[in-house]
């Protein structure tokens, strides 16, 4: 029975570790869901108003930051097409870069649209109530009435940063394809091989730091 017990413990530990890992990977989602849920279910109207105003102001700041970042990323993507003639760029790289640029511009448009919408809502005397009605609705749960966030609204307010992240991933993927496409025979004396090796080292170091920082940042939020 001991070997079976050890296997069960090992499988349970592995499952727990994987569950924890994916919780951390998707931590930005609950970190968005929980503040909205809190402002919708605060015990008093005064607390709801304070939390709603805080969420609105923070969201406007986030959208402004996303817009600035998108502008910088878009300029980098556009400049990358001047590295060499477009007809000499591998077609997967060109396609990914065009797609990244399109997603980036879409992110800018959505961030602007959402910022304008929040500013217009703020012009009403009952603006905070209107924002809460937009974000959630009442539902019965365990004999209690609570307000739950609308899943479509959660998706909408995440879209600008999501598109920005995806555009960066597409751009980096295009760079990887561009570099490895330049390789001929693998010879350490070739210039292209040296470039790819140095790029791989820098990429591994950057990726490790990004994952580590993400883990340390979000591990206590799930």
From TrEMBL:
The keyword Membrane is annotated on this UniProt entry: yes
Keywords of the record: Membrane, Transmembrane, Transmembrane helix
Domain of life: Eukaryota
Transmembrane segments: 63-83, 95-112, 161-180, 192-218
Name under which the protein is recorded: Uncharacterized protein
Organism of provenance: Podospora didyma
């Amino acid at each position: 029975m001991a070997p079976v017990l050890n296997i069960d413990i090992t499988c349970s530990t592995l499952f727990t570790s994987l569950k924890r890992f994916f919780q951390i990977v998707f931590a930005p989602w609950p970190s968005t869901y929980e503040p909205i849920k809190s402002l919708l279910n605060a015990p008093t109207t005064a607390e709801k108003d304070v939390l709603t105003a805080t969420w609105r102001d923070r969201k406007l700041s986030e959208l402004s930051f996303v817009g600035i970042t998108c502008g910088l990323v878009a300029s980098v993507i556009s400049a990358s097409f001047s590295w060499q003639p477009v007809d000499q760029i591998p077609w997967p790289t060109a396609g990914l870069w065009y797609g990244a640029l399109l997603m980036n511009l879409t992110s800018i448009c959505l961030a602007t649209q959402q910022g304008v919408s929040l500013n217009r809502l703020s012009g009403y005397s009952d603006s905070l109530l209107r924002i809460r009605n937009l974000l959630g609705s009442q539902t019965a749960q365990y004999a209690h009435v609570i307000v739950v966030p609308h899943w479509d609204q959660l998706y909408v307010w995440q879209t600008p940063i999501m598109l920005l992240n995806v555009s960066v991933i597409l751009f980096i993927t295009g760079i990887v394809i561009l570099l490895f496409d330049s390789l001929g025979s693998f010879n350490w004396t070739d210039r292209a091989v040296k470039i790819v090796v140095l790029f791989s080292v820098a990429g591994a170091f950057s990726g490790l730091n990004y994952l580590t920082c993400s883990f340390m940042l979000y591990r206590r939020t799930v």
